[in-house]
Amino acid sequence: AMPSEVVVQMKDGRRHALRVDAPKGRPSNPMDWNDMADKFRRLAAPTLSESRAEQVIERVDGRLIINPGAA
Prior knowledge:
elongated, alpha+beta, single chain, 71 residues, two-stranded antiparallel ribbon
């Protein structure tokens, strides 16, 4: 994975930077169940109601292998 960097320059000229070498979700920085559920909620929001998204999450909970490399 390619690292990512964001640099913000303030009006007064100060610069703030943040670099991430292993973004969340990469094998070296895996998402946990809560991360995946939150991501699903965000991506499903335009299509599913909040209650339906929660039903899907409840149904899938415990049925996924979160870290297939460890299995």
